Amino acid sequence: MERPSSVFADSKKHFLILDGLRGVAALVVVLFHILEVFSGGDHTKQLINHGYLAVDFFFVLSGFVMAHAYDDRWSKMTYKAFFKRRLVRLHPLIILGMTVGAICFYFGQSEIFPKIEETSLLQLLLVLAIGYTLIPLPPSMDIRGWNEMHPLNGPAWSLFLEYVANILHAFILRKLSKLVLGILVFFAAVALIHLAVTSPNGDIIGGWSLEPEQLHIGFTRLLYPYMAGMLLRRTLRFGNFKYAFLWSSILLVGVLSIPRIGGSDVLWANGLYDALSVIIIFPIIIYIGASGELKSKTAQKISTFLGDISYPLYILHFPFIYLYFAWVYNNNISMSQGIGAGIGLFIFTILFSYAALKFYDEPIRKWLAKKAGIN
Description:
It is built from twelve helices and no strands. It is mainly α. Helix 3 runs antiparallel to helix 5. The longest helix has 38 residues, at 335-372. The radius of gyration is 20 Å and the shape is globular.
């Protein structure tokens, strides 16, 4: 979810289209989650069916951007400076997301969240304090009933893995040759395909729980896309695509929105689609996006706006989704009855995320950067 710095060495560029693509993916994630409650837990009925793959797209993009922004700066940057930058960039919104999740928590009481009613205020505050650190919680400390490692803000699991990737990047991955990195990417791709085609659900959904099976899913989803993004940045020369933002956005939305592939008798087919989307199509989308330029001021403003709200939108929307889930479940709301509120929620999360960016995240990051001596 990282946005490249606007200040690079002369040989570098700011990939503004990639900023916009990250925002497009974040918008699809919100729509995916709003519509998810109407599927009744049946993934074959989920509209915007493959919205969960946006997380894997974020990981590819993150590997690409981290290699672009940092890999030639290590001779002038310490580990401490690197990790300070990552904390300043990511953690303020993690804290805000956990806080919003705690504020909303008791308002989401519903049978769909079976543990809320029995959770004491002391338990909630303990989970909140641990959530601020992003240390994952075991199932024994779950206070919602979904076995999330971050029950106040479910999507924070992917930020935990992002931090893991940053640690691996700093200490190991950045030091690897392109050949060694390529070999690791190959084996990670094989692991991802195996996970996808053998999945009992026919997809690669998962990674949000501190359980062996879920951790296996999470790390398998992390390692290929992140390393593939790094390798893509290191190896490819970028072309000159016309209308790159338009075509890459259409392709991305199409991949994330396509209906379920196959039925219950061929679950592997959808799993294979998931794997090939991550392994082949997402790098192509990033290649197209990185190979284009935005000529018009309007397109530049749209892409900048989408990039700006992408991270706050992703990390702040889910506490409100919990409330929406509880409302739909408690009142037996059909899709036709709930779609108006869903549209309102979609608009609200965008506005809330933009406000959080401007009045909280940017000022806090500016203050922290000054305190930490980050230029």
